[in-house]
Amino acid sequence: AQRVTQPEKLLSVFKGAPVELKCNYSYSGSPELFWYVQYSRQRLQLLLRHISRESIKGFTADLNKGETSFHLKKPFAQEEDSAMYYCATLGAGNQFYFGTGTSLTVIP
Amino acid sequence: DTGVSQDPRHKITKRGQNVTFRCDPISEHNRLYWYRQTLGQGPEFLTYFQNEAQLEKSRLLSDRFSAERPKGSFSTLEIQRTEQGDSAMYLCASSLGVNTEAFFGQGTRLTVV
Predict the structure, then answer these.
(1) Cβ-count burial of A81 within 10 angstroms (0-12 exposed, 13-18 middle, 19+ buried)?
(2) A56 vs A88, more confident
(3) Confidence band (pLDDT; 50, 70, 90) for A1?
(4) 3-class SS at A79?
C-alpha cells in the first residue's frame, strides 16, 4: 500500500533562510507524488507534482528513488510561505493518500 | 465562485443524530472524492465516485456512513447515529479524470456533542 511519512509536525525558519520539508514514501511501483498546501483559512490546494518538475512559488521537490524521498525545498523562505504542507501519493483511482502534514512558520 | 462548494460549513449535532453533508463539484468534473480530516492528521480518503458510480470505499467508512451521487453531479455524505469520534472536517474534492489535479472544497466541520 502507498504511504507517505512526514516526520516533522512543526518547522520554523527565519525569513530568507532555506527551508526543507521532508517527505518519505513507501511504494513498490513508480510513485506519483505531490505537495499540497493549505494557507490559513483557505482550502487545500495543489502546490506541485513530481512529474511536472516545475518550480511553484520558488518551491521545488525532487524525487529521490534511492532514499525514497520527495522533500520540498525553497532557498529563501518568505513570510507568506507560512502554511500547512502535505505530501501525498496517488492511488489507482486518483484518490490521494496524504501524510500527517508539516506546519511551517516563517519568522519575520 | 466556480470551485468545489460544500454545505454546510459547520454542523453541531447531538450524539445519535443523523447528519447529511452536500458537495457540489466543479461542473465538468466526473470524479468526486470524500475525505475526513481530524486534528493533527492529514486528510484520510473515504470514498470516491466516477460519475454516479461509487468505485471505492475505505475501511474507515463504517456502515453508519453512506455516500451518494445520484446524477453524477452533486454528492451527499450521510452519517447515521453520530458518535463523538465522528467529529472532524469532511472534505470533498473533484477532478476531471485520472492523473489530473483534484480541487478541494473548504470542508464541513462536524462537531458531535
Answers:
(1) buried
(2) A88
(3) low
(4) helix
Given an 8 Å threshold on Cβ–Cβ distance, is A101 in contact with B41? yes
**B70 and A CB contact within 8 Å:** no
Residue A25, SS3? strand
The C-alpha cell 521545488 sits at A60
Nearest Cα of chain A lies from the Cα of B18 at a distance, in angstroms, of 26
Burial environment of residue B49 by CB neighbours within 10 A (0 to 12, 13 to 18, 19 or more): buried
Q: Tens digit of pLDDT for each residue in A27-53?
A: 767 788 999 999 998 999 999 988 777
Chain segment A6-24, per-residue pLDDT in tens: 999 999 999 999 999 999 9
Distances (CA, A) of B100 to A34, A42, B20, B73: 12, 21, 28, 18
**Cα nearest neighbour of A88 on chain B:** B42
Q: Which residues contact B13 (CB under 8 A, 6 or more apart)?
A: B19, B82, B110, B111, B112, B113
Report yes or no: B44 at the A interface, CB cutoff 8 Å.
yes
Answer with the residue of higher pLDDT: B23 or A92.
B23
Residue ranges for chain B with pLDDT beneath 50: none
Instruction: Say if the Cβ atoms of A96 and B43 lie within 8 Å.
Output: yes
